[in-house]
């Protein structure tokens, strides 16, 4: 890309990437939201997704560690407390564990990440490393998948409540809270990228960062599909659902 884009054109290109390759299109999500998975497969999803949840505050801490702009740190810090909690506010990771408890998984086993798929571990760590190593505006841009998260969260809340008798309203609390948190965070990050990516190279970096992040998300679902749907190729050491 040689031409500099206006901030509006940059936003258009970012939205086009999301529309084309966000993980709402993944076959595993279609099965999950459509009630086509059994409890063991939903357990596998929640257990693997815990790795992503627990990596998010680590990548946000990595971003802040390299940020010399106090205003940006003041804005970014709530992302860490949103997940880790603070004072009486339990935080998103605790709400995720309410979901895995509700699915009958042992908390210590979930937190240990021992049953996670190898691809999950590699993908989430690649996200932490990307944020640590790339430019600040690329690091911010890699969070922009969240622009597309509210609609998948809505679909998940209604789809899972309707289709699974082992899912109740209280275990979906994590996603309900994200419906307000994600748009606030995504809009801030989008404005930051529009204001701060002002050369063709920086704009290309922002677009590539979003593409990279869609790959981080997609790879995790590919791994779940291969291991727990078809052909059922569970790697040694990974979580094995009860036969029941
Ligand atoms: O359920 C989802 O599909 C989904 C997607 C994403 C995303 O697009 O990265 C996030 C979340 N959920 C989420 O709950 C969350 O806290 C979150 C933080 C981030 C980020 O990159 O900083 N993405 C996401």
Automatic annotation (TrEMBL):
Molecular function, one GO term: pyrroloquinoline-quinone synthase activity
Catalytic activity reported: 6-(2-amino-2-carboxyethyl)-7,8-dioxo-1,2,3,4,7,8-hexahydroquinoline-2,4-dicarboxylate + 3 O2 = pyrroloquinoline quinone + 2 H2O2 + 2 H2O + H(+)
| Main EC class the enzyme belongs to | oxidoreductase
Write down what this protein is called. Answer: Pyrroloquinoline-quinone synthase
Functionally, this protein is described as follows: Ring cyclization and eight-electron oxidation of 3a-(2-amino-2-carboxyethyl)-4,5-dioxo-4,5,6,7,8,9-hexahydroquinoline-7,9-dicarboxylic-acid to PQQ.
Annotated Thiaminase-2/PQQC domain residues: 13-222
In this record, what's one Pfam family? TENA_THI-4
Q: GO annotations under biological process?
A: pyrroloquinoline quinone biosynthetic process
Q: Which UniProt keywords apply?
A: Oxidoreductase, PQQ biosynthesis
Per the record, the similarity remark reads:
Belongs to the PqqC family.
The protein's matches in InterPro entries, at most eight in alphabetical order, are given as:
Haem_Oase-like_multi-hlx (IPR016084), PqqC (IPR011845), PqqC-like (IPR039068), Thiaminase-2/PQQC (IPR004305)
């Amino acid at each position: 890309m040689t031409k500099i884009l206006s901030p509006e054109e940059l936003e258009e290109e970012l939205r086009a990437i999301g529309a084309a390759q966000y993980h709402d299109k993944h076959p595993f999500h279609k099965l999950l939201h459509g009630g086509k998975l059994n409890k063991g497969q939903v357990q596998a999803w929640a257990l693997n997704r815990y790795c992503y949840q627990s990596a998010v505050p680590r990548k946000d801490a990595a971003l802040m560690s390299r940020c010399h702009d106090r205003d940006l740190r003041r804005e970014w810090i709530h992302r860490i407390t949103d997940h880790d909690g603070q004072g009486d506010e339990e935080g998103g990771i605790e709400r995720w564990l309410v979901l895995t408890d509700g699915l009958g998984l042992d908390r210590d086993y979930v937190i240990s990440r021992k049953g996670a798929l190898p691809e999950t571990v590699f993908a989430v760590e690649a996200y932490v490393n990307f944020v640590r190593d790339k430019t600040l505006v690329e690091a911010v841009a890699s969070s922009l998948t969240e622009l597309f998260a509210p609609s998948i969260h809505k679909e998940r809340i209604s789809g899972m409540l309707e289709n699974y008798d082992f899912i109740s309203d209280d275990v979906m609390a994590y996603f309900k809270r994200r419906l307000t948190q994600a748009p606030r965070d995504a809009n801030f990050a989008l404005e930051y990228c529009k204001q701060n990516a002002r050369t063709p190279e920086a704009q290309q970096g922002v677009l590539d960062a979003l593409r990279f992040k869609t790959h981080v998300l997609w790879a995790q679902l590919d791994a779940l599909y291969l291991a727990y749907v078809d052909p059922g190729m569970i790697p040694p050491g990974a979580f094995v659902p009860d036969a029941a």
